[in-house]
Amino acid sequence: MAGTRTSIHGEWSSRFAFILAATGSAVGLGNIWKFPYIAGQNGGGAFVLVYLICVALIGIPIMMAETMLGRRGRQSPINTMQSLAEEAKANPNWHFLGWLGVVAGFLILSYYSVIAGWAGAYVVKSVSGDFSGASAEVTSSLFGEFVASPLQLLFWHTLFMVSTMVVVARGVQGGLEKSVRFLMPALFVLLLIMVGYAMSTDAYGQGIAFLFAPDFSRLSTSGILTAMGQAFFTLSLGMGAIMVYGSYLPSHVSIARTSVIIAGADTLVALLAGIAIFPIVFANGLEPGSGPGLIFQTLPIAFGKMPGGAFFGMLFFILLVFAALSSSISLIEPAVAWLVENKGMSRRRACFWSGFVTWLLGLGTVFSFNLWADFTLFGNTFFDVLDYLTANIMLPLGGLLLAVFAGWIMKQRASKDELSDEGVLVYKVWRFLIRYVSPVAVAIIFLDVIM
User: Fold this and answer.
1) Half-sphere exposure for 213 (CA within 13 Å, toward CB)
2) Could you say which DSSP state residue 393 is in?
3) How far apart are CA 253 and CA 266, in angstroms?
4) Residue 13 backbone dihedrals phi, psi, to 5 degrees
């Protein structure tokens, strides 16, 4: 039955196009913003080693499963899960797994757009010389004043959402594919330029040793769970993006090989980000484990001190914007696909309404840092609630259910049909991991963050 369904939205023109798109979805702020500081907080090399193991045992099997389900269903995640549940003669409520992914991606994009807007604003700040000779107090003050301004956040949030909508409205090959063919090579080039600068600093060796020399005495149980969680989340699993991209994948393309390449490219970006950032941090006597502020409050100090700092600061924040945009187009695509399939909308109209509602919801995040900062739910702002709900509950739950459906509910002949090009050994290893290893690991992550 493989390849008998066709997507009304079109297909990727090649395996390379799918790899670029899925890598673009996976590569985002999590790789360049989050990975370096959580590696810094958890002992560097030891954390990286555990992270790589988790990518292999959790990330790749679930990515293969999500891509396989998408290609077999050839529809939006919601309709795909409905069709596959019927095919497996399973409970029809499995279509709610599709809803879970679509809604999670929708909610994530609403605040992701705001954070991406920060990166856009910092491109301008870098060019304007705002970081020149700045101390920690100055960069902290700059950041505080920026997020305290609802008008500034609203402008950059709006600009980023409009950019996302323009790309997605142009379709699979005309919009998504064309954009990632530019964004991903540009992202790698910018990152390599930053790595080249890091290599010229006196602290390059110290940064490399920190990132790759394992120090297990600094790795706690909490750090191991953090590595497991990062390996899962960094690949954009459980939010409908990989499933909908898989629905556009030609039937002759190997899912296993593409999943390995995507996971490898995603990991490479995260490691290159660490190679670029840590030597700069050490060269300027800064703290590598300084948390989320590493990008927006700590690195500007370094850019303000280094020769050509305005230029390299601009490059770095452009890099962040490109990474965010390549992810954002995948986050909104599942909702757009569903509206086209179920409501008879044109793609442009579906994109407008999806984008508008996402933008509207994003106002809650914009105001969380200023006008609504004192309005909390259980001690958390609107942004904190959305972040916790999606990252700690919806995504791990979605990943767990994906593994269960692919490994236990979907008929073995159906998964064999979609993975027939992979070889008997690859299929057997994947099936063992997706049935016994990945779901247990994701369940541990899930239970750890909610307890």
Assistant:
1) 6
2) I
3) 20
4) -75, -20
**Angle at the Cα of 309 from the Cα atoms of 159 and 151, rounded to 5 degrees:** 25
Residue linked to tokens 């700069």: 280
Contacts of residue 355, Cβ cutoff 8 Å, sequence gap at least 6? 161, 162, 164, 165, 168, 332
Is 3.40.50 the CATH number for 15-450? no
**In the chain, what are the domain boundaries?**
15-450
Buried b (16+ CB within 10 A) or exposed e, 215-247: eeeebeeebbbbbbbbbbbbbbbbbbbbbbbbb
Q: Give the angle subtended at the CA of 161 by the CAs of 158 and 163, to the nearest 5°.
A: 110
SS3 86: helix
The crossing angle, in degrees rounded to 10, of helices 136-147 and 150-169 is 70
Q: Which amino acid type is present at position 413?
A: R
- Cα 420 from chain centre: 29
Residue 339 near residue 116 (C-beta atoms within 8 A): no
Q: What are the structure tokens assigned to 357, written together?
A: 């509602």
Per-residue tens of pLDDT for the chain, all 451 residues: 444 678 888 899 888 999 999 998 888 877 887 888 788 778 788 899 999 999 999 999 999 999 999 999 999 999 999 999 999 999 999 999 999 999 999 999 999 999 999 999 999 999 999 999 888 889 989 999 999 999 999 999 999 999 999 999 988 888 888 898 888 899 889 899 989 989 998 999 999 988 888 888 888 888 888 888 888 878 888 899 999 999 999 988 999 999 999 999 999 998 998 898 888 888 888 777 666 667 888 889 888 988 888 999 999 899 889 989 999 999 999 999 999 999 999 999 999 999 999 999 999 999 999 999 999 888 899 999 998 898 888 988 999 999 999 999 999 999 999 998 888 999 999 999 999 999 999 998 888 877 7
